[in-house]
Amino acid sequence: MKEYLVVENEIINRTKYIYFDGILDFSTINSLHEDDYEINESFDMLILDISKLDFIDSTGVGLFINLIHESKDNAVQLNINGATEQVEEILETLGVYQVLAAI
Questions:
Q1: Of 101, 98, 27, 32, nearest to 58 (Cα)?
Q2: Secondary structure of 3-19 in the HEC alphabet?
Q3: 63-87 burial code (b ≥16 CB/10 A, e <16)
Q4: Alpha carbon distance 23, 66 (integer Å)
Q5: What is the pLDDT along the chain (103 residues), one digit of tens a residue?
Q6: Whether the Cβ atoms of residue 46 and residue 80 lie closer than 8 Å to each other
Q7: What's the count of helices (H) and strands (E) in the chain, helices before strands?
Q8: Are 14 and 44 in contact (CB under 8 A)?
Q9: By the 8 A CB rule, do 24 and 54 touch?
Q10: What's the pTM value of the predicted model, to 2 decimals?
């Protein structure tokens, strides 16, 4: 398993893509820059591409929950794409998809 986190983002046609690679946990969360996950009026949709995310803990889940709420507050649709089986199980267990569906 990778021991790092790389986050890249781009905006294409008013959709912001955030690509996560590695592990998103308490030991890597500080490597994120506010620009990586800033939500603003320059886009209408936010897609979290987590296909290369090997692991996420409650710290990373907290970031996703905050992004879900911030997206709602800014009228931005949010999708989470590409979860591996292990990450999918963690997101389901910790209720991320339930929060996403409720908003």
A1: 27
A2: CCEEEEEEEECCEEEEE
A3: bbbebbeebbeeebebebeebeeeb
A4: 18
A5: 678 999 999 999 999 999 999 999 999 998 888 888 889 888 999 999 999 999 999 999 999 999 999 999 999 999 999 999 999 999 999 999 999 998 8
A6: no
A7: 4, 4
A8: yes
A9: no
A10: 0.92
Spatial contact of 82 and 50, defined as CB atoms under 8 Å apart? yes
Q: Which two tokens stand for residue 1?
A: 């398993």
The span from the CA of 31 to the CA of 84, in Å, is 22
Q: Are 87 and 50 in contact (CB under 8 A)?
A: yes
